[in-house]
Amino acid sequence: MNSYIVRGGTPLRGEVTISGSKNAALGVIAAAMVLDVPSRIENIPQVADAEIQLEICESIGAIVHRESPGTVTIDPRPIRTSHIETDKVRNIRASYYLLGVMLGKFGEGSIKMPGGCDLGTRPIDQHIKGFEALGATVTIEHGMIRLSSAQKLHGEHLFLDQGSVGATINIMLAAVRIEGTTIIENAGKEPHIVDVANFLNTMGANIRGAGTDVIRITGTPVLHGDGMYSIIPDQIEAGTFMIAAVLTRGDITVRNIIPHHMEPLSVKLVEMGAHTESGDDWMRVWTDDNAELSAAHFKTMRYPGFPTDLQPQTTVLLATATGTSRMHEDVFDNRFQYVDDLKMMGARVLVADRFAIIEGPCPLTGAHIRAHDLRAGAAMVLAGLYARGETRIDDSQIVERGYEDFIKKLTALGADIREVE
Ligand code: UD1
């Protein structure tokens, strides 16, 4: 187990370059497995989850050449099985994308149930519904999901109940190799869904409408485009640094971002009293010295709504704002587990079902806490950066599942943070 030791109280100032999107990378790496040729992918973040996804691909025979930090070539031609045996799939959620890949490519596949952050119940019924609509038979036995197809798979018109990100990508990955046109209605619209679709289209797929409610995928028997792709910047990493700027009453410019992806957050930061300005691929976020922030109400939603992956970081920020704020978590049913740790630091937060009511401002003080999950762990780091005194955050390795060089980037902005074993 590793821990972060943070000493708070310093406004963070300076510039930070945002890495490639973790969630997009997980989808694009899986999508590289559906192709008939090697592909070269750039801007993959150097984080544990992306490395695990690559290792899972290697476990079934793909050749992964790590050319330089952030750039890999993936050759799916030597894949020798559609049955994924490695236990590594249980370390991340997005390992289940390989199920869609195997179904489209081989008409069958199996994988152990995926893992990922504990955010409450995380059913996969929408993935199963999609696979069955394409003609697959799905069974779950002994912790394994198995797909088979007695008859030829075919494109289908289907409607997702939830607009799930994972189900949208998984069905898309299967449908690109299946004859006919698959229409996904009420699809997820998150930027990383669009990135996976763009990658596949670059490689010869026929996907229309990614980023809207309706995605149309016409199956292609062979997929071999020009083989090079660069992953989009990480919306959540950028958002975490933007919140850090406001929380510490500092001034941070995030570079290598898509400013449009940041609007659900930036408008709310301005509403609370922060200032922003932006250019083609950057955004500056700052507050007046020792600014008093106003309370605000948030509700997490599917894109382009406010992202659930910024909910814990934002709740920490609300603890420092003046007045009563409300955070409504409308995506996951148990994503406030970190609040007990925040209360140990002096925050006044009441959680009832999917709502947190936050009374601010609270003079947070350092405490010995832990990272419950990836984004909650990042939120605890932010709390430590604001708090008076020293904060120790156990299980800090969880944060490195999704943030490249987190300590290095924060230190360059003036943070006092180090990692100990
Ligand atoms: C993805 C992201 C995660 C983010 C989440 C929501 C990746 C690797 N992970 O997770 O960081 O927090 O989107 O933006 O991209 N649901 C069902 N049935 C299903 C699938 C989902 O009921 O078959 C429900 C879930 O329980 C949850 C909601 O739909 O309440 C959203 O889940 P989903 O969009 O699928 O999130 P993930 O793909 O798991």
End-to-end separation = 6 Å
Which distinct ligands sit in these coordinates? Answer: uridine-diphosphate-N-acetylglucosamine
Mean pLDDT across all residues, rounded? 95
CATH domain topology of the largest domain: UDP-n-acetylglucosamine1-carboxyvinyl-transferase, Chain
* Tally of helical segments: 12
Give me the count of strands.
24
What is the class of the largest domain in the CATH system? Alpha Beta
Compute the gyration radius: what is it?
21 Å
Helix content: 25-40%
Largest sheet: 4 strands, mixed
Give the low-confidence spans: none
CATH H level of the largest domain: which superfamily? Enolpyruvate transferase domain
What is the 3D shape?
A: elongated
- Share of β-strand residues: 25-35%
CATH architecture type of the largest domain? Alpha-beta prism
Overall tally of structural domains = 2
Strand order of the largest sheet: 22-23-1-24
Classify the secondary structure makeup into a structural class. alpha/beta
Description:
With 421 residues, the protein is an alpha/beta fold. It has two domains: 3-19 and 233-420, Alpha-beta prism (UDP-n-acetylglucosamine1-carboxyvinyl-transferase, Chain), CATH 3.65.10.10; 22-220, Alpha-beta prism (UDP-n-acetylglucosamine1-carboxyvinyl-transferase, Chain). The protein is built from twelve helices and 24 strands. The strands form six sheets. Strands 22-23-1-24 form a four-stranded mixed beta sheet. A four-stranded mixed beta sheet has the order 2-15-17-16. The protein is elongated and about 65 Å long. Bound molecules: uridine-diphosphate-N-acetylglucosamine (UD1). Uridine-diphosphate-N-acetylglucosamine is lined by residues 23, 26, 93-94, 121-127, 162, 164-167, 188, 192, 308-309, 331-332. Uridine-diphosphate-N-acetylglucosamine (UD1) binds next to α1, α4 and α5.
